[in-house]
Structure formats: structure tokens, C-alpha cells
Amino acid sequence: MRDASRVFSSTLLWPLLVLLALLVVNVVANPGFLEVRVQDGRLFGSLVDIVRNGAPVLLIALGMTLVIATRGIDLSVGAVAAIGGAVACVYMVSSPDESGLGTALVACALALATCVALGLWNGFLVSVLGIQPIIATLVLLVAGRGLAMLVTDGQITTVNNDSFRTIGVGFVLGLPVAALVAWAVFGLTALLVRRTALGMLVEAVGINPEASRLAGVRAVTIRWTVYVFSGLCAGLAGLMIAANTSAADANNAGLWIELDAILAVVIGGTSLAGGRFSLAGTFVGALLITTLAATIPNIGIPSETNYLFKAVVVIVVCLLQSPKARAVLRRRRTTPAPPAPPAPPESPTPTLAKAGTR
Amino acid sequence: MSTQLRPAPATTPPAPGGTGPRGTGRPSRGRWHALRTYQPSGRFLPILATLALFLGMLQVGGLRYEGFTSSQVILNLLTDNAFLVVLAVGMTFVILTGGIDLSVGSVVALSTMVAAWTLQDGWSPVAAIVATLTVGTVLGLLTGMVIHFFDVQPFIATLAGMFLARGLCYLISVESIPIRDDTFFFLASEPIAIALAPWQGGVVIGLLALGMVAAVVKRAALRSALLPVLVGLGVGMWVTLLLMGDPELTTTYSVVIALATVAVAILVLHRTRFGRTVYAIGGSEASALLMGLRVGFVKVAVYAVSGFCASLGGLLFAFYMLSGYSLHAVGMELDAIAAVVIGGTLLAGGRGLVVGSLLGVLVLGTIQTFISFDGTLSSWWTKIVIGALVLLFVVMQRVLTRRQS
Questions:
Q1: Do the Cβ atoms of B146 and A141 come within 8 Å?
Q2: I need a surface site. Which of A19, A110, B118, B372 has the fewest CB within 10 A?
Q3: A113 CB contacts (<8 Å, ≥6 apart)?
Q4: Are B167 and A306 an interchain contact pair (Cβ–Cβ within 8 Å)?
Q5: In this complex, which of A130, A141, A312 lies closest to B334 when CB atoms are compared?
Q6: ipTM of the prediction greater than 0.85, yes or no
Q7: At what angle do helices A77-94 and A55-69 cross, to 10 degrees?
Q8: How far apart are CA A281 and CA A286, in angstroms?
Q9: Residue B32: predicted pLDDT
Q10: Interface contact A134-B347, CB threshold 8 A
């Protein structure tokens, strides 16, 4: 806890500043941006939209954070989300009582079970067979959308079920259900990971799987579990995406969401090299990504250029976090002040170590 | 001649003896020798498996559908996937160093856009082509520099490149831009007759057969490379037979460009210092650095090569589609990666052959031909089968590398 402020200042500072800058830009472009009003017992406003639209990315980024902390990566989450949505929608359409609450519950359970099974598969390839994570999950990334289309038979399956719709567009106590669900899962995970030894074990596995195994950590089980958890999160996100439009679109549901999620994780300061993770960072990262997506149409730029801005943000944040780039910046800042030899003074070293290796 | 990184004890005895009495046999023997020493036999196993898969799929297709194994259909595998061949070649360079390039699909789209836009603006075709290739190469170079100088993971840096290229596409135009240039039309659709007359084919097959006999006679010198050499010559015969099979056989310039790219890539990878360094970095970057190899230069250059190949592939794609559009080639990077993996290249880097990637593309093309010939199979089976094949090859590589280590 005592380290918290130090870590905070080094890894969370930049994303938070960028997020703040984005909000300022939004307010300048559209003074009513921050306005939140109550109408029909629910909250309305751009901020509420950002929070609601960001729920799937937040969930997937949550699963991704733990996977990345074990030095892995899960590229298949977008495809898994599509499969989850497809399974739920196809089940509801084919069941006799399409609009019932029970049907929706069974459909969701079925979809989540499917996604857990897919997570089991990914985890099996990575932890038991020892295949590199990027390749093992590439298999499902390539095949997954095909499987989703197999489930929906290539159609966009539309469902008529209000209970199911609630997951995507419903409001409880004035707050969007999607965001509440995502936050609840997020909070529970944070408690589980940071209030027990689990988080430390995950990080240990990420630093050195072999050494942690020899130290008595069940490395295989932990690596397997994080992929299953990632599958579960992806399934939940897939349900939200499908419920948002009340339809399962095998081709476009969750398209490139894996990249958004990875970006959110990286922006949040979790190193892709594994061994450390920051859930708070992921939270900020996911917010940042969604805010960026909302900013672009708000300031009157065609939303197609979204990618350009995303690229710029990725590059800037990555460079700001890269130890080497920081060293270059620091050297430039320190050289004019002290005498000629640019021998690294005492002060930058701890900061660098903090940014790079912790 | 390539320097032999791998000390081969067996080579030393014949060399001094061979200088005097056996002067005539030496040059060819030395070449075979180099071939043998620098690739252990295990290296050829995945590529032989890919070849077997490809030929097996053609065989099954030929049994099930009429005309599947006709010369023109098989040649069309190349014609329809020429751009993917070029992409896969660039991707092979990157993956051999242990990196990955996610930006190639977007760079293809950007290249079609740049080509269409410059042509629309009244540039000459040559200028348009040069501009397109420059844009791709510079983008790749920048990505490589970010990766090398700032220690950003290839995955993230090329992801940024991917977004950047797509964003630039939309900046040029949101709409599709048609290409109406005569040179592009010519390159896209001008048929090149490549059918061999029976006597020409006969001569080639005769030469290949002689080569086979020579290989069998010299099998002691070839040792573990004997099988791959025989298979290679056999494939050569098969291709010759295909070219003899249909006097009307034609192809396009795209195929010529793609095959030329493959040939150049093979030369660069196996006959230059740059190529050897690529393999060395993939094997172990730290060791390569300690050996004094120019790791930084090669790491940056590999992404520039990939960017160049992506923009060249984009040009071929523009020939194929005759339009520039921001939504071209979505997800094509996955096809390129899958082709490289199916071609037997280790994703961890250090092992793999460009020819394998060519075969990988042919396998992907065969799956598509299968589905279009069948008519009852839905298009999504392509994705599922490709995924299954990637899995198969990844598991196979895993088993092979585990056995060796």
C-alpha cells in the first residue's frame, strides 16, 4: 500500500492526464458534454453512454489483464464473444417461449458455458501443450467467427426477448445494467486477486513459470484458469453486445474488440512481458478507449478517422511508458542543467526501474 | 557462398583430399554440401508435411469434383492469391526474427488507396507505383524503428501501424475509388501464355530425371537432404507436366511478380549476410548480438521488408480488384500469418523457409477452391478449416521441437 502512490504516479499518471485532456477537448467542443440529466427515472448524457458502451471492452480487458499478467495473450476474445452471442440468440429463437425470462436465463447460461469451454480449450493449448499463447489463441481467432456463423447458419439472428435486452440497454436505479454488471465483475475480481495471494501467484507465474512451479505454485492450473476466466468475460461481453442490438451478428459482433482490450490493458501500464498487472490501470485504459471513440464524432470529425486517433494514442502512450523513450526524454531534460558529462544521476534510476521492471 | 555457421566435422576430411585429384567434382559437390550442412533434416519435415497436405487435398478434390486438378484451376490458385504470396513472404521475414506484423492487411488497403488516388490525380502509373511502394516501406521502417529503438513489443507497435494505415485510408477517401489506368488494366488482365510444348516439357523432365539419378548416386554426400532434394525434383516434374497439360494455359503478371518475390526472398535469406542474421536473431537475439551481428539494423530492416511486401501485395491486390477502398483486405494479416504457420515456420522464430509460406498460401487457396467447387459448403467452413490446419501445424511443430530439445 505504501508503494501505491509511487506506482500510481508512474504508470497511471499519463493515461489519466490523456483521459482528462480528452474530456476537456469534449467540453470545449460541446459545452453540454458533461451534462447528466434524469429522465424517466434513468440517467441520460454522453458520460452515461460512454460508461455503457465501454462495458464490453472493460470486461474483456479485465480477463485480458490477468492473461497478460501470466505472460500470455488471448487474441480469441472477439471471436469467443461472437460465439457467445450467437449461442444465446439461436437458443432463444429456437425455444418455444422466445420472450420468456426463463428462456433468457437458460440462453445466457448456455452461452457462458460455451465460452468457458472455449476458454478451457485455449488454456489447455497454452498450459498443458505449452504452445505460445499468441499462436494458441490465434487458432480460435481464425476459426471462431466461422464457428459463430456455423451456429447462426450465416444469418443475423434477431431475437425478441425483453429480459435479454436488459443486459445491453436496461437501467437499474437509473444506471445502465451493462456497466453495473461489468463493474460488479470487476470489483469481485479485484477483491479476489488483490485481497488474496492469487494476484501475487499470477504475477509469479508471469515472471517465471518454471521457477514458480518449483516454488510450489500450481503454474499450470493458474495459467489454465486465467484463460477460462478470459473466456467467461468474453462471453459476458458477447451477451451484452448481442443484447444491445437484440441480434447476433457472427461477422461483426466484437470485431477487433481484442485489440481494444489489449490497448486498454497496455495503456493501463500492464506490461505485455507479464509479471505485473494493474487492474486500476485497465479500468482507466478501457475508459480512455471508449472516451476516445466518443470524442471523435463529438468534435465533428468523421468517425471513420477513429483509427488514426487510436493509432496516435497507442504510439504516444507506449512511448511514454517505454523505459528507453523515457530515458531519452530524461537525458535531454537533465543534460543542459548539470555539467557536461551526462552520467545518469541518482534520481532517474529508481524511476526507470519503477517504470520498466516492476 | 554462405559462411557455414554450423561446424560440420564430416566436411573437413574430404575437403583437403578433394582439392587435388577430384577437382572436377568439387563445385557441384560443394553446393550440395552447403545445402546439406545448413539445414538439418528436421527442418524439412514441416514443409514436407505441407506439401503432402497440398497434394493430398488436390487428389481428394480431383476425385470428388470434375476438373479440379486441371492445369488452369491449379494455376489459378496462384493467380487468385498472388497478393497473399507476397504478403506471406514479408511476414516470413518478420516471423523468422521472432516478431509479428499485424499491419499488413491495413497496409494493403492503404496501398490500393494510394495507387487509386494518385492515378485519379493524374500521376503516371510508374509514379503511382513508386509512391505506393514508398509509403508501405516507410511505414514499415517507422514501425521497425519504434520496435527497436523504444523497445515496444512488435505486437503493439504493428497494431498501432494497423490502426494508422486504416486511418490514413479514410483520410484519403471514405468512398471506393475506381482504377481506370491502361497500364494497370494491362498488368491485371494481360494473359501470358506459359504452356510448354511437348518437346520442351520432355527436355525439362529429362533433366530433372537426370538430377534424380545423380542425387541417388551421390546419396552419401546428400545424406539427410536426399529426400527433400528428390521431392523437390519430383515437384518440378509435376509442375512441368501441369504446364504441358493444357496448350491454352495462361497466367498474369501478378503471378510473375509474386514468384519473383519468392525467388528474391529465398536468395536474400540463404545467400546473404542479412538473411543469415535474420535466422540468427530468431534463434537467439542475445547470442546474435554477442556474435557482433548487426541486430538493430536487421530488426528494423525486417519490418521495412514486410512493409514493402505489403505495399507490393497491395499493388497486386489493386490489379486484382481495380479499385482502392478503405475496407479492402480486412483480416488479411491473419491469412498471411496462417499461411506462414501452415508453411512450417516456427512462430518463435529462427526456423522456416519461404517456400513453405508459398505452399501455405497454396493450401489456403485450395481450401477456397474446394468450397467454390462444392457449392453446398458454406463460406465459413474456410475459416474453420484454416483454424484447424493452423492448430494441426502448431501442435506438430510443438512435438517436433520438443523431441529435438
A1: no
A2: B372
A3: none
A4: yes
A5: A141
A6: no
A7: 130
A8: 9
A9: 59
A10: yes
Average pLDDT over residues A246-262: 85
Q: pLDDT higher for B113 or A175?
A: B113
Q: Please say if the pLDDT value at position A43 is more than 90.
A: no
Residue A259: list chain B partners with CB under 8 A.
159, 162
Sorted by where each starts, the structural domains of chain A and their CATH numbers stand as 4-301 (1.10.3470)
**B100:A134 CB<8 A:** yes
Is B29 within a domain?
no
Across the interface, do B160 and A311 touch by the CB < 8 Å criterion?
A: yes
| Pure H helices in chain A | 4-7, 13-29, 46-53, 55-69, 77-94, 101-123, 133-152, 162-169, 177-194, 198-207, 209-214, 219-245, 257-267, 279-298, 306-321, 323-334, 348-357
Which residues have C-beta within 8 Å of that of residue A129, sequence separation ≥ 6?
A136, B395, B398
In this complex, the residue of B150, B166, B382 whose CB is nearest that of residue A319 is B150
DSSP structure string for A90-129:
HHHHHSSSTT-HHHHHHHHHHHHHHHHHHHHHHHIIIIIS
- B5-45 tens-digit pLDDT: 444 444 334 433 334 344 444 455 565 565 555 444 567 78
- Give the CA angle between residues A120, A122, A123 to the nearest 5°: 60
Asked if B69 and B62 count as a contact pair (C-beta separation under 8 A), the reply is yes
- Kindly state whether residue B172 falls inside one of the protein's structural domains: yes
Q: Tell me the pairing of strands A247-248 and A157-158.
A: antiparallel
Of A139, A149, A311, the CB nearest to B387: A139
Confidence at residue B23, expressed as pLDDT on a 0 to 100 scale: 42
Distances (CA, A) of B35 to B16, B58, B257: 19, 29, 26
Bridge-based pairing of strands B250-251 and A37-39 is unpaired
Question: For residue A338, is pLDDT > 60?
Answer: no
What's the confidence (pLDDT) of residue B268? 94
In chain A, residues with a C-beta closer than 8 Å to the C-beta of B98 are none
Domain contains B218: no
pLDDT computed for residue A9 by the predictor: 53
Average pLDDT over residues A200-217: 88
Place of cell 538473411: B275
For chain B, the domain total comes to 1
Q: Cα-flanking dihedrals φ and ψ of residue A322, to 5°?
A: -70, 125
CB B201 within 8 A of CB B186: no
Cβ within 8 Å, pair B347-A136: no
Sign for the pseudo-dihedral over CA of B368, B374, B379, B380: negative
DSSP B9: G
Question: Is residue B274 within 8 Å of B298, Cβ to Cβ?
Answer: yes
B143, pLDDT greater than 80? yes
CA distance linking residue A91 with residue A113, whole number of Å:
13
Task: Identify the burial level of A277 via C-beta atoms within 10 angstroms of its C-beta, where 0-12 means exposed, 13-18 middle and 19 or more buried.
Answer: buried
- Note the pLDDT tens digit of each residue in B300-318: 999 999 999 999 999 999 9
Q: pLDDT grade, residue A292 (50/70/90)?
A: confident
Residue with cell 476458454: A119
- Give the B window 314-343 contacts with A, CB below 8 Å: 326, 334, 337-338, 341
Q: What is the mean pLDDT of chain B?
A: 84
Lookup result for grid cell 468475460: A233
Q: Looking at the domain assignment, is residue B17 inside a domain? A: no
- As to burial, measured by CB atoms within 10 angstroms (0-12 exposed, 13-18 middle, 19+ buried), residue A250 is buried
Work out the pLDDT band at B244, boundaries 50, 70, 90.
Answer: confident
CA distances from A196 to A86, A200, A294, B89, B186 (A): 35, 8, 36, 48, 68
The answer to whether residue B150 neighbours chain A at the CB level (below 8 Å) is: yes
Q: What kind and span of H or E run contains B177?
A: strand B177-178
SS3 of residue B40 by DSSP:
coil
Domain of B54, in residue numbers = 43-195+246-404
